[in-house]
Amino acid sequence: MIQKLPGPYYRRVDTSELIPLQREKAEQTIWNRLKQLGNMKRKRCKSQGPLRIGILGCMAERLKEEILQREKMVDILAGPDAYRDLPRLLSVAETGQQAANVLLSLDETYADVMPVQTSSNSVSSFVSIMRGCNNMCTYCIVPFTRGRERSRPVHSILEEVKMLSSQGIKEVTLLGQNVNSYLDTSSLQFPTTNASHLSRGFSTIYKPREGGLRFVDLLDQVSSVDPEMRIRFTSPHPKDFPDEVLHLIRERHNICKQIHIPAQSGSDRVLEAMRRGYTRGAYLDLVQNIREHIPGVSLSSDFITGFCQETEEDHQQTLSLLRDVSYNAAFLFAYSMRKKTRAFHRLKDDVPPEVKKRRLEELIAVFREEAEKVNQRDVGSTQLVLVEGVSKRSSLELCGRNDGNTKVIFPDVPIASNSSLGDDIRARPGDYVLVKITSSSSQSLRGRLLDLAKLQSSPAIS
Ligand code: SF4
Protein backbone atom coordinates (compact mmCIF):
# COMPACT_ATOMS: atom_id res chain seq x y z
CA MET A 1 0.00 0.00 0.00
CA ILE A 2 1.42 3.37 -0.91
CA GLN A 3 0.38 6.44 1.06
CA LYS A 4 0.72 9.49 -1.22
CA LEU A 5 2.00 12.46 0.73
CA PRO A 6 0.12 15.73 0.81
CA GLY A 7 1.94 18.52 -1.03
CA PRO A 8 1.90 21.88 0.73
CA TYR A 9 1.22 24.03 -2.31
CA TYR A 10 -1.23 21.98 -4.28
CA ARG A 11 -4.37 22.38 -2.23
CA ARG A 12 -7.34 24.44 -3.21
CA VAL A 13 -7.99 26.21 0.08
CA ASP A 14 -11.13 28.18 0.89
CA THR A 15 -10.91 31.41 2.78
CA SER A 16 -12.89 29.55 5.43
CA GLU A 17 -9.81 27.44 6.04
CA LEU A 18 -7.63 30.16 7.44
CA ILE A 19 -5.82 27.79 9.71
CA PRO A 20 -2.03 27.79 9.47
CA LEU A 21 -1.33 24.90 7.15
CA GLN A 22 1.96 23.84 8.64
CA ARG A 23 4.12 21.16 7.24
CA GLU A 24 4.68 19.68 10.70
CA LYS A 25 1.00 18.97 10.96
CA ALA A 26 0.97 17.23 7.57
CA GLU A 27 4.09 15.26 8.45
CA GLN A 28 2.70 14.26 11.84
CA THR A 29 -0.35 12.86 10.05
CA ILE A 30 1.98 10.71 7.97
CA TRP A 31 3.93 9.47 11.02
CA ASN A 32 0.61 8.50 12.65
CA ARG A 33 -0.59 6.79 9.51
CA LEU A 34 2.70 4.87 9.27
CA LYS A 35 2.12 3.52 12.79
CA GLN A 36 -1.36 2.29 11.78
CA LEU A 37 -0.04 0.72 8.58
CA GLY A 38 2.84 -0.87 10.51
CA ASN A 39 0.32 -2.52 12.86
CA MET A 40 -1.74 -3.73 9.90
CA LYS A 41 1.39 -5.15 8.31
CA ARG A 42 2.37 -7.01 11.48
CA LYS A 43 -1.09 -8.53 11.90
CA ARG A 44 -1.45 -9.53 8.27
CA CYS A 45 -1.85 -13.28 7.78
CA LYS A 46 -0.07 -15.20 5.04
CA SER A 47 -3.19 -15.85 2.98
CA GLN A 48 -3.65 -12.11 2.48
CA GLY A 49 -0.23 -11.73 0.88
CA PRO A 50 2.42 -9.22 1.93
CA LEU A 51 1.60 -5.56 2.56
CA ARG A 52 4.14 -3.08 1.18
CA ILE A 53 4.35 0.41 2.64
CA GLY A 54 5.74 3.21 0.51
CA ILE A 55 6.26 6.93 1.04
CA LEU A 56 6.23 9.14 -2.03
CA GLY A 57 6.98 12.79 -2.50
CA CYS A 58 8.72 15.62 -0.70
CA MET A 59 8.70 14.09 2.77
CA ALA A 60 10.47 11.01 1.41
CA GLU A 61 13.15 13.25 -0.08
CA ARG A 62 13.49 15.48 2.96
CA LEU A 63 13.52 12.87 5.73
CA LYS A 64 14.85 9.79 3.96
CA GLU A 65 17.30 8.58 6.63
CA GLU A 66 15.03 9.44 9.52
CA ILE A 67 12.16 7.50 7.94
CA LEU A 68 14.23 4.43 7.18
CA GLN A 69 15.67 4.34 10.69
CA ARG A 70 12.53 5.23 12.58
CA GLU A 71 10.03 3.18 10.62
CA LYS A 72 11.42 -0.24 9.85
CA MET A 73 8.05 -1.17 8.36
CA VAL A 74 8.55 1.17 5.40
CA ASP A 75 9.50 -0.75 2.24
CA ILE A 76 9.75 1.99 -0.38
CA LEU A 77 10.86 5.60 -0.43
CA ALA A 78 10.42 7.52 -3.69
CA GLY A 79 11.22 11.22 -4.01
CA PRO A 80 9.14 13.53 -6.24
CA ASP A 81 11.30 12.80 -9.30
CA ALA A 82 11.47 9.03 -8.84
CA TYR A 83 7.94 7.86 -9.66
CA ARG A 84 9.06 6.21 -12.89
CA ASP A 85 11.35 4.04 -10.80
CA LEU A 86 8.43 2.61 -8.78
CA PRO A 87 8.24 -0.76 -10.61
CA ARG A 88 11.94 -1.38 -9.82
CA LEU A 89 11.55 -0.19 -6.25
CA LEU A 90 8.55 -2.50 -5.79
CA SER A 91 10.48 -5.47 -7.13
CA VAL A 92 13.36 -4.72 -4.74
CA ALA A 93 10.83 -4.48 -1.90
CA GLU A 94 9.47 -7.91 -2.92
CA THR A 95 12.83 -9.41 -1.93
CA GLY A 96 12.31 -8.09 1.60
CA GLN A 97 14.77 -5.18 1.36
CA GLN A 98 14.02 -1.51 1.83
CA ALA A 99 14.15 0.31 -1.53
CA ALA A 100 14.80 4.03 -1.92
CA ASN A 101 15.28 6.55 -4.72
CA VAL A 102 15.11 10.19 -3.70
CA LEU A 103 17.35 11.68 -6.39
CA LEU A 104 16.18 14.98 -7.81
CA SER A 105 16.25 15.45 -11.56
CA LEU A 106 17.10 18.43 -13.75
CA ASP A 107 14.65 17.46 -16.47
CA GLU A 108 11.88 15.21 -15.12
CA THR A 109 8.45 16.74 -15.90
CA TYR A 110 6.38 13.52 -16.26
CA ALA A 111 5.27 15.04 -19.57
CA ASP A 112 4.38 11.69 -21.12
CA VAL A 113 2.52 10.34 -18.07
CA MET A 114 -1.16 11.18 -18.45
CA PRO A 115 -2.93 11.40 -15.10
CA VAL A 116 -6.17 9.48 -14.68
CA GLN A 117 -9.16 11.33 -13.27
CA THR A 118 -10.50 9.12 -10.47
CA SER A 119 -13.53 11.15 -9.42
CA SER A 120 -16.24 11.15 -12.07
CA ASN A 121 -18.19 13.82 -10.14
CA SER A 122 -15.50 16.43 -10.36
CA VAL A 123 -16.11 19.48 -12.54
CA SER A 124 -12.57 20.82 -12.17
CA SER A 125 -9.09 19.48 -12.43
CA PHE A 126 -5.47 20.47 -11.85
CA VAL A 127 -2.92 20.20 -14.66
CA SER A 128 0.73 20.24 -13.70
CA ILE A 129 2.73 22.46 -16.09
CA MET A 130 6.11 22.77 -14.42
CA ARG A 131 8.12 21.51 -11.47
CA GLY A 132 10.73 22.92 -9.13
CA CYS A 133 11.81 26.49 -8.50
CA ASN A 134 14.97 28.56 -9.05
CA ASN A 135 14.13 31.39 -6.70
CA MET A 136 15.62 30.33 -3.37
CA CYS A 137 13.46 32.40 -1.03
CA THR A 138 15.29 32.05 2.28
CA TYR A 139 12.40 30.39 4.15
CA CYS A 140 11.48 27.88 1.46
CA ILE A 141 12.34 24.21 1.19
CA VAL A 142 10.88 23.73 -2.31
CA PRO A 143 14.12 24.25 -4.30
CA PHE A 144 15.69 21.54 -2.12
CA THR A 145 12.84 19.03 -2.27
CA ARG A 146 11.56 19.68 -5.79
CA GLY A 147 14.78 20.70 -7.48
CA ARG A 148 15.43 23.15 -10.30
CA GLU A 149 12.71 24.66 -12.40
CA ARG A 150 11.71 22.74 -15.54
CA SER A 151 8.62 23.06 -17.70
CA ARG A 152 6.48 20.40 -19.28
CA PRO A 153 6.22 20.75 -23.09
CA VAL A 154 3.19 22.67 -24.37
CA HIS A 155 1.98 19.81 -26.60
CA SER A 156 1.79 17.44 -23.63
CA ILE A 157 -0.17 19.96 -21.55
CA LEU A 158 -2.58 20.60 -24.44
CA GLU A 159 -3.13 16.88 -24.86
CA GLU A 160 -4.14 16.58 -21.20
CA VAL A 161 -6.42 19.62 -21.33
CA LYS A 162 -8.16 18.23 -24.46
CA MET A 163 -8.63 14.89 -22.72
CA LEU A 164 -10.16 16.64 -19.68
CA SER A 165 -12.43 18.67 -21.94
CA SER A 166 -13.69 15.48 -23.61
CA GLN A 167 -14.44 14.10 -20.12
CA GLY A 168 -16.65 17.09 -19.35
CA ILE A 169 -14.25 18.94 -17.04
CA LYS A 170 -15.28 22.61 -16.94
CA GLU A 171 -12.41 24.19 -15.06
CA VAL A 172 -8.69 23.60 -15.25
CA THR A 173 -6.10 25.09 -12.92
CA LEU A 174 -2.58 25.17 -14.31
CA LEU A 175 -0.31 24.13 -11.49
CA GLY A 176 3.32 24.63 -10.55
CA GLN A 177 5.55 26.18 -7.91
CA ASN A 178 6.14 29.20 -10.08
CA VAL A 179 3.70 28.86 -12.96
CA ASN A 180 4.24 32.18 -14.66
CA SER A 181 7.97 31.63 -15.12
CA TYR A 182 6.98 28.70 -17.37
CA LEU A 183 9.34 28.30 -20.34
CA ASP A 184 9.12 25.49 -22.87
CA THR A 185 12.37 25.39 -24.80
CA SER A 186 11.52 22.06 -26.42
CA SER A 187 8.93 23.68 -28.71
CA LEU A 188 11.31 25.64 -30.91
CA GLN A 189 9.03 25.11 -33.91
CA PHE A 190 6.86 27.83 -32.37
CA PRO A 191 7.84 31.50 -32.56
CA THR A 192 9.86 32.55 -29.54
CA THR A 193 9.17 35.45 -27.24
CA ASN A 194 12.34 37.28 -26.29
CA ALA A 195 10.89 40.36 -24.64
CA SER A 196 11.73 40.80 -20.94
CA HIS A 197 9.12 38.99 -18.90
CA LEU A 198 9.97 40.49 -15.51
CA SER A 199 7.41 42.76 -13.86
CA ARG A 200 8.71 46.32 -13.37
CA GLY A 201 10.71 46.76 -10.14
CA PHE A 202 11.32 43.02 -9.65
CA SER A 203 14.58 41.10 -9.75
CA THR A 204 15.76 37.51 -9.71
CA ILE A 205 18.87 35.89 -8.36
CA TYR A 206 19.26 33.88 -11.58
CA LYS A 207 19.80 35.05 -15.13
CA PRO A 208 16.45 35.21 -16.95
CA ARG A 209 16.32 32.61 -19.70
CA GLU A 210 15.48 33.59 -23.27
CA GLY A 211 13.66 31.96 -26.17
CA GLY A 212 11.04 29.22 -26.11
CA LEU A 213 7.38 29.46 -25.25
CA ARG A 214 6.52 31.48 -22.21
CA PHE A 215 3.55 31.42 -19.88
CA VAL A 216 1.56 33.86 -22.03
CA ASP A 217 1.92 31.50 -25.04
CA LEU A 218 0.80 28.53 -22.97
CA LEU A 219 -2.15 30.41 -21.51
CA ASP A 220 -3.18 31.50 -25.00
CA GLN A 221 -3.13 27.93 -26.33
CA VAL A 222 -4.71 26.27 -23.31
CA SER A 223 -7.59 28.75 -23.19
CA SER A 224 -8.27 28.13 -26.90
CA VAL A 225 -8.94 24.41 -26.39
CA ASP A 226 -12.53 24.68 -25.12
CA PRO A 227 -14.45 27.98 -24.93
CA GLU A 228 -16.66 26.48 -22.20
CA MET A 229 -13.71 25.60 -19.96
CA ARG A 230 -12.53 28.07 -17.33
CA ILE A 231 -8.78 28.45 -16.90
CA ARG A 232 -7.05 29.41 -13.65
CA PHE A 233 -3.42 29.13 -12.58
CA THR A 234 -1.53 28.85 -9.32
CA SER A 235 0.87 29.59 -7.80
CA PRO A 236 2.57 32.44 -9.66
CA HIS A 237 5.40 34.69 -8.49
CA PRO A 238 4.73 38.45 -8.64
CA LYS A 239 7.94 38.99 -10.61
CA ASP A 240 6.56 37.33 -13.76
CA PHE A 241 3.55 39.45 -14.71
CA PRO A 242 4.44 41.28 -17.92
CA ASP A 243 1.64 43.37 -19.44
CA GLU A 244 1.10 40.84 -22.24
CA VAL A 245 -0.10 38.26 -19.66
CA LEU A 246 -2.50 40.83 -18.18
CA HIS A 247 -3.79 41.77 -21.67
CA LEU A 248 -4.51 38.14 -22.45
CA ILE A 249 -6.36 37.61 -19.15
CA ARG A 250 -8.49 40.66 -19.85
CA GLU A 251 -9.28 39.72 -23.45
CA ARG A 252 -9.93 35.99 -23.15
CA HIS A 253 -13.43 35.28 -21.81
CA ASN A 254 -12.55 31.91 -20.25
CA ILE A 255 -9.38 32.93 -18.37
CA CYS A 256 -10.66 33.82 -14.92
CA LYS A 257 -10.11 37.39 -13.79
CA GLN A 258 -8.52 36.13 -10.63
CA ILE A 259 -4.84 36.47 -9.81
CA HIS A 260 -2.85 35.12 -6.90
CA ILE A 261 0.06 37.41 -6.04
CA PRO A 262 1.89 36.05 -2.99
CA ALA A 263 3.23 39.02 -1.01
CA GLN A 264 4.56 37.13 2.07
CA SER A 265 5.20 40.38 3.97
CA GLY A 266 4.43 44.09 3.78
CA SER A 267 7.80 45.13 5.21
CA ASP A 268 10.77 45.92 2.96
CA ARG A 269 13.16 44.72 5.66
CA VAL A 270 11.46 41.33 5.91
CA LEU A 271 11.04 41.01 2.13
CA GLU A 272 14.78 41.49 1.79
CA ALA A 273 15.51 38.93 4.51
CA MET A 274 13.18 36.54 2.68
CA ARG A 275 14.99 37.30 -0.60
CA ARG A 276 11.76 37.86 -2.46
CA GLY A 277 13.25 40.16 -5.08
CA TYR A 278 10.86 43.10 -4.65
CA THR A 279 9.92 45.91 -2.32
CA ARG A 280 6.52 46.79 -0.90
CA GLY A 281 6.40 49.73 -3.35
CA ALA A 282 7.09 47.52 -6.38
CA TYR A 283 4.44 45.07 -5.20
CA LEU A 284 1.85 47.82 -4.79
CA ASP A 285 2.72 49.19 -8.26
CA LEU A 286 2.09 45.71 -9.64
CA VAL A 287 -1.30 45.54 -7.89
CA GLN A 288 -2.22 48.89 -9.41
CA ASN A 289 -1.06 47.81 -12.86
CA ILE A 290 -3.10 44.59 -12.62
CA ARG A 291 -6.20 46.52 -11.54
CA GLU A 292 -5.78 49.04 -14.37
CA HIS A 293 -5.47 46.25 -16.95
CA ILE A 294 -8.20 44.00 -15.51
CA PRO A 295 -10.97 46.02 -13.87
CA GLY A 296 -12.82 44.02 -11.21
CA VAL A 297 -10.00 41.46 -10.89
CA SER A 298 -10.05 39.28 -7.75
CA LEU A 299 -6.76 39.20 -5.90
CA SER A 300 -5.46 36.66 -3.42
CA SER A 301 -2.17 36.32 -1.61
CA ASP A 302 0.01 34.37 0.83
CA PHE A 303 1.51 35.88 3.96
CA ILE A 304 3.99 34.51 6.47
CA THR A 305 3.96 36.11 9.89
CA GLY A 306 6.71 35.92 12.50
CA PHE A 307 9.61 35.44 10.07
CA CYS A 308 13.13 35.72 11.56
CA GLN A 309 13.65 39.06 13.35
CA GLU A 310 10.23 40.39 12.33
CA THR A 311 9.48 43.39 14.58
CA GLU A 312 6.14 44.88 15.60
CA GLU A 313 6.77 47.64 13.05
CA ASP A 314 7.28 45.02 10.30
CA HIS A 315 4.08 43.32 11.40
CA GLN A 316 2.16 46.61 11.24
CA GLN A 317 3.46 47.07 7.68
CA THR A 318 1.99 43.69 6.74
CA LEU A 319 -1.35 44.58 8.31
CA SER A 320 -1.40 47.83 6.38
CA LEU A 321 -0.62 46.03 3.11
CA LEU A 322 -3.61 43.75 3.74
CA ARG A 323 -5.73 46.89 4.21
CA ASP A 324 -4.23 48.70 1.20
CA VAL A 325 -4.87 45.86 -1.24
CA SER A 326 -8.11 44.31 0.15
CA TYR A 327 -7.73 40.75 -1.06
CA ASN A 328 -10.59 38.41 -1.94
CA ALA A 329 -8.70 35.48 -0.44
CA ALA A 330 -5.52 35.03 1.57
CA PHE A 331 -3.56 32.09 2.90
CA LEU A 332 -1.95 33.10 6.15
CA PHE A 333 0.77 31.15 7.92
CA ALA A 334 2.87 31.47 11.06
CA TYR A 335 6.55 31.02 10.16
CA SER A 336 8.04 27.65 10.91
CA MET A 337 11.73 27.14 10.19
CA ARG A 338 12.81 24.36 7.81
CA LYS A 339 16.13 22.58 7.87
CA LYS A 340 18.27 23.01 4.72
CA THR A 341 16.87 26.47 3.94
CA ARG A 342 19.05 29.58 3.83
CA ALA A 343 17.16 30.99 6.81
CA PHE A 344 18.03 27.86 8.81
CA HIS A 345 21.74 28.40 8.14
CA ARG A 346 21.90 32.21 8.31
CA LEU A 347 19.01 33.60 10.35
CA LYS A 348 17.52 33.24 13.80
CA ASP A 349 13.95 32.07 14.34
CA ASP A 350 13.57 34.49 17.23
CA VAL A 351 9.90 35.48 17.24
CA PRO A 352 8.31 33.61 20.19
CA PRO A 353 5.47 31.19 19.29
CA GLU A 354 2.89 33.16 21.28
CA VAL A 355 3.84 36.33 19.37
CA LYS A 356 3.52 34.49 16.04
CA LYS A 357 0.11 33.22 17.12
CA ARG A 358 -1.09 36.68 18.11
CA ARG A 359 0.21 38.25 14.90
CA LEU A 360 -1.44 35.53 12.83
CA GLU A 361 -4.76 36.19 14.56
CA GLU A 362 -4.39 39.89 13.80
CA LEU A 363 -3.68 39.14 10.15
CA ILE A 364 -6.75 36.90 9.95
CA ALA A 365 -8.93 39.57 11.57
CA VAL A 366 -7.79 42.32 9.16
CA PHE A 367 -8.06 40.03 6.16
CA ARG A 368 -11.64 39.07 7.10
CA GLU A 369 -12.65 42.67 7.68
CA GLU A 370 -11.41 43.62 4.21
CA ALA A 371 -12.79 40.51 2.49
CA GLU A 372 -16.20 41.27 3.96
CA LYS A 373 -16.14 44.71 2.34
CA VAL A 374 -14.92 43.26 -0.97
CA ASN A 375 -17.71 40.65 -1.05
CA GLN A 376 -20.33 43.18 0.05
CA ARG A 377 -19.67 45.07 -3.21
CA ASP A 378 -21.01 42.05 -5.15
CA VAL A 379 -24.43 42.19 -3.50
CA GLY A 380 -26.98 43.14 -6.15
CA SER A 381 -24.82 41.89 -9.04
CA THR A 382 -25.44 38.85 -11.23
CA GLN A 383 -22.61 36.34 -11.13
CA LEU A 384 -21.78 33.51 -13.50
CA VAL A 385 -21.28 30.45 -11.30
CA LEU A 386 -19.91 27.02 -12.15
CA VAL A 387 -21.99 24.58 -10.09
CA GLU A 388 -19.84 22.17 -8.06
CA GLY A 389 -22.51 20.27 -6.14
CA VAL A 390 -24.72 20.23 -3.07
CA SER A 391 -23.76 22.71 -0.37
CA LYS A 392 -22.03 21.15 2.65
CA ARG A 393 -24.39 22.92 5.04
CA SER A 394 -27.74 22.07 3.44
CA SER A 395 -28.94 19.48 0.95
CA LEU A 396 -31.52 22.05 -0.22
CA GLU A 397 -28.78 24.31 -1.56
CA LEU A 398 -26.18 24.12 -4.30
CA CYS A 399 -22.77 25.71 -4.29
CA GLY A 400 -20.26 26.71 -6.90
CA ARG A 401 -17.63 29.35 -7.66
CA ASN A 402 -17.80 32.60 -9.49
CA ASP A 403 -15.11 33.86 -11.86
CA GLY A 404 -13.18 35.35 -8.92
CA ASN A 405 -13.16 31.92 -7.21
CA THR A 406 -15.47 33.00 -4.38
CA LYS A 407 -17.90 30.38 -3.15
CA VAL A 408 -21.52 31.12 -4.11
CA ILE A 409 -24.44 29.31 -2.40
CA PHE A 410 -28.01 29.34 -3.72
CA PRO A 411 -31.24 27.34 -3.27
CA ASP A 412 -31.59 24.19 -5.38
CA VAL A 413 -34.87 25.12 -7.05
CA PRO A 414 -36.23 24.37 -10.54
CA ILE A 415 -34.89 26.80 -13.09
CA ALA A 416 -37.56 29.42 -13.67
CA SER A 417 -37.19 29.83 -17.44
CA ASN A 418 -38.02 26.15 -18.06
CA SER A 419 -40.98 25.81 -15.72
CA SER A 420 -43.46 26.64 -18.53
CA LEU A 421 -42.47 23.39 -20.28
CA GLY A 422 -43.56 21.46 -17.24
CA ASP A 423 -40.06 20.06 -16.76
CA ASP A 424 -38.51 20.18 -13.37
CA ILE A 425 -35.10 21.10 -14.74
CA ARG A 426 -32.49 21.83 -12.11
CA ALA A 427 -28.92 22.99 -12.20
CA ARG A 428 -26.39 20.17 -11.93
CA PRO A 429 -22.66 19.97 -11.23
CA GLY A 430 -20.80 21.19 -14.30
CA ASP A 431 -23.53 23.65 -15.35
CA TYR A 432 -22.90 27.36 -15.55
CA VAL A 433 -25.71 29.35 -13.95
CA LEU A 434 -26.54 32.98 -13.36
CA VAL A 435 -27.05 33.87 -9.71
CA LYS A 436 -28.35 37.20 -8.40
CA ILE A 437 -26.33 37.94 -5.25
CA THR A 438 -28.45 38.86 -2.26
CA SER A 439 -26.03 38.67 0.69
CA SER A 440 -22.37 38.14 1.53
CA SER A 441 -19.87 37.32 4.27
CA SER A 442 -16.07 37.41 4.33
CA GLN A 443 -16.02 33.88 2.92
CA SER A 444 -18.91 33.46 0.52
CA LEU A 445 -21.81 34.93 -1.41
CA ARG A 446 -25.44 33.89 -1.31
CA GLY A 447 -28.00 34.45 -4.01
CA ARG A 448 -31.00 33.54 -6.10
CA LEU A 449 -30.74 31.18 -9.06
CA LEU A 450 -31.80 32.94 -12.28
CA ASP A 451 -31.02 30.68 -15.21
CA LEU A 452 -28.66 28.28 -16.93
CA ALA A 453 -25.92 30.04 -18.90
CA LYS A 454 -22.98 29.55 -21.26
CA LEU A 455 -19.49 30.71 -20.41
CA GLN A 456 -18.87 32.17 -23.87
CA SER A 457 -22.05 34.23 -24.02
CA SER A 458 -22.25 35.48 -20.44
CA PRO A 459 -20.32 38.27 -18.81
CA ALA A 460 -18.65 37.05 -15.61
CA ILE A 461 -20.41 39.74 -13.63
CA SER A 462 -23.05 42.37 -14.33
FE1 SF4 B 1 9.65 28.68 -2.61
FE2 SF4 B 1 10.16 31.20 -3.28
FE3 SF4 B 1 10.19 29.25 -5.12
FE4 SF4 B 1 7.86 30.02 -4.08
S1 SF4 B 1 9.22 31.29 -5.32
S2 SF4 B 1 8.55 27.90 -4.40
S3 SF4 B 1 8.46 30.49 -2.00
S4 SF4 B 1 11.60 29.46 -3.41
UniProtKB/TrEMBL annotation:
Source organism: Engystomops pustulosus (Tungara frog)
InterPro entries: Elp3/MiaA/NifB-like_rSAM, Methylthiotransferase, Methylthiotransferase_CS, Methylthiotransferase_N, Methylthiotransferase_N_sf, rSAM, rSAM_horseshoe, rSAM_sf
Source domain of life: Eukaryota
Main enzyme class: transferase
Annotated GO MF terms: 4 iron, 4 sulfur cluster binding; metal ion binding; tRNA-2-methylthio-N(6)-dimethylallyladenosine(37) synthase activity
Reaction equations catalysed: N(6)-dimethylallyladenosine(37) in tRNA + (sulfur carrier)-SH + AH2 + 2 S-adenosyl-L-methionine = 2-methylsulfanyl-N(6)-dimethylallyladenosine(37) in tRNA + (sulfur carrier)-H + 5'-deoxyadenosine + L-methionine + A + S-adenosyl-L-homocysteine + 2 H(+)
Assigned protein family: Belongs to the methylthiotransferase family. MiaB subfamily.
MTTase N-terminal domain location: 23-95
Gene3D superfamilies recorded: Methylthiotransferase, N-terminal domain, tm_1862 like domain
Cofactor: [4Fe-4S] cluster
Ranges of residues in domain Radical SAM core: 119-373
SUPFAM superfamilies: Radical SAM enzymes
Alphabetical list of NCBIfam families matching this protein: MiaB/RimO family radical SAM methylthiotransferase
Protein name per Swiss-Prot or TrEMBL: Mitochondrial tRNA methylthiotransferase CDK5RAP1
UniProt keyword annotations, A-Z: 4Fe-4S, Iron, Iron-sulfur, Metal-binding, S-adenosyl-L-methionine
A Pfam match: TRAM
Alphabetical list of PROSITE patterns matching this protein: MTTASE_N, MTTASE_RADICAL, RADICAL_SAM, TRAM
